[in-house]
Amino acid sequence: MRFGINFFPTLGPADRSAAQYYDECLRLTELADELGYHHVKTVEHYFFPYGGYSPDPVTFLAAASARTRRLRLVTGAVIPAFTHPVKLAAKLAMLDNISRGRLDVGFGRAFLPDEFEAFQVPIDESRDRFDENVEAIRRLWSEEDLLWRGRFHQFGPVTLLPRPYQEPHPPILVAAAFTPASCERAGRNGYGLLLVPSISSRERVQEMLRLYRAARAEAGHDPQKGQIHMSYLAAIAEDGAQARRAGQEQSEHYSARLVDAVASWGRTRSDAYAGYERLVEQVRKTDYWQQLAENKVLAGTPDEVAGQLEAIREWFGDVTVSLQVNSGTTSYEEAERSLRLFADHVLPRLDTTAPAHA
Description:
This protein has helices at 18-35, 57-67, 85-98, 113-118, 126-142, 180-189, 202-218, 240-261, 279-284, 288-293, 302-316, 332-345, 347-350; strands at 2-7, 39-42, 72-78, 103-107, 146-149, 154-158, 172-175, 192-195, 228-236, 298-300, 320-324. By secondary structure, the protein is of the alpha/beta class. The chain has one domain (2-350): Alpha-Beta Barrel (TIM Barrel), CATH 3.20.20. The chain has an 8-stranded parallel β-barrel, surrounded by 6 helices. Strand 3 (72-78), helix 3 and strand 4 form a beta-alpha-beta unit. It comes from Gandjariella thermophila. Pfam families: Bac_luciferase.
């Protein structure tokens, strides 16, 4: 298994200024690089305390690149539907060069109706726009004199500059929420996966991974080489009860901010998002202690969290885990403590690829 950190802000100006939040995240990123973590990841969202402090992962990851030497930089995820493919391909290629090939690109469809409305993109077109734009970006990276005639964009012939640092292009990952077909499609294309296990049952995640790995193998891609990223809220302390209380505060705060962000599903229907009209009620029913028991939240002493991760490895294989240690309720000191304890006591036990650190 490999481990990194995930920045998914669930706060706004009433909680902490954006400048302070970015400063704390960049300090944690530097620390993660020193401690031997594998990656730093961040999201793309708008408007709401649920993710709104991270409207552009590329900007944050460029700053992270300048402060680190080893960490992989992961977009988790950028949204192709909201940006012209030439613009997004060029921004990402530039970051790949700045970081000397440390970029992994995760793409997502988006799911918040308010975001689609603001960008004047019909939500029913999200799947088609996603598929078309990801393919356009991949070809812009790997081909010259590209002539593109898609449904949503037409351009060329053009040769993108700069060319990506990695050849033929950075690794591509696809965010999948509930839909097994998305996992199969990612596997057939040879892409990696971005998953959030907390929103699905263990059995459903296992089925999604089975379909993904089978599709990779059937398409001729090594089924063991596809990156599978999973993100977890995490709180670690020497006192397990203290860590679990901190995890509860993080989890309930996250759920409350998510309820606000998905409220517009109460008046929105889309065949592209079957069942999402029930999302508000599902989030409200989230029970922290049940999630902890099901290893959907990581909280406790280092030994307890290592035990949770050993169970996760048994269920899902040697996946890449992203720890979210600084939600809107967490102080910098608490987040740093979690990262240090995990690096000292869990990384040596579960991540044999991590370099030794001071």
